[in-house]
Amino acid sequence: MTLKIDSGVEPVVVDRSSIVWHLPHDAMDIPAEVREQFVLSDSELAKELLRMTDHATARLFGLDVQNPTVVWAPVSRLVVDVERFPDDVDEPMAGRGMGVIYQLTSNGRPLRRPISAQERQTLLNDWYWPHHRRLEAAVDRAIGRHGRCLLIDCHSFPSRPLPYEPDQNPVRPEICLGTDDYHTPADLLHAALKAFRAEGLQIATDRPFAGALVPLSRYRRDPRVSATSSGWSQFGA
Ligand SMILES: [Zn+2]
Questions:
Q1: By CB atoms within 10 Å of each CB, which of 25, 79, 101, 237 scores lowest?
Q2: Ligand 1 centre and the CA of 127: distance in Å?
Q3: pLDDT digits over 187-197, tens only?
Q4: Rounded to the nearest whole angstrom, what is the distance from the C-alpha of residue 209 to the centroid of ligand 1?
Q5: CA 97 to CA 164: how far, in whole Å?
Q6: Bridge partner residues of 154 (DSSP)
């Protein structure tokens, strides 16, 4: 099946099966063996999960999570955040205690007890690397079949900023489109902006969240991968 998108310049034709949908923050599960790392009570942890989960992303994007073109993280971002760089040296949010493995909550309080290097490795081996292998495989499949891939990173975000977020502007758009200079073609961005605005939605690019995720092996080296990040405001959250 193909989608024809009117960008106002020339139609952009996308085969649906060349799209890979990435859902990094939809899950709320915390495996029993990881629970003891968190220093919060059950009720505090439940509240933090509510605050930090990208609620209803599969439904917002109309996705069947069983479809192999949909790559979703099976555990909460509080376990590992698959959207972060694996090495804290590369990850700007690590400075806020929220690198790939969070040490602090969304309001800067202790979330986890200190963990050993071995425990960190185990978390990455169990939850980070398998997820990224699935993402790499889905992108490989799309490129193998179609010669290209459009990767859409699917998020939803609170209607008011949480304390940890770098962008504290209280006025937020309904839709945030994240872009990457290398991987987001201008005609794709133009078409997406036009389509959302036609629905009467307020939309901003790279605000309150910037960037678009691409598998590390292809990041800024494979122009066959186009990418955008799309976030929807969680009204009334
Ligand atoms: Zn998210």
A1: 237
A2: 17
A3: 999 999 999 99
A4: 9
A5: 9
A6: 230
Spell 155-175 as b/e; 16+ CB within 10 A means b. Answer: bbbbeebeebbeeeeeebbbb
Contact between residue 178 and residue 230 where contact means Cβ atoms under 8 Å apart: yes
* Predicted structure pTM score: 0.90
CA of 72 to the centre of ligand 1 (A): 12
Q: Which tens digit of pLDDT belongs to each residue from 51-103? A: 999 999 999 999 998 899 999 999 999 999 999 999 999 999 999 999 999 99
229 CA distance to ligand 1 centroid (A)? 9
Dist. CA 157 → ligand 1 center (Å): 7
Q: What is the CATH number of the domain that holds 106?
A: 3.40.630.40
pLDDT over threshold 80, residue 186 = yes
Which residues partner with 15 through β-bridges?
Answer: 2
- CA 93 → CA 3, 24, 162, distances in Å? 36, 16, 14
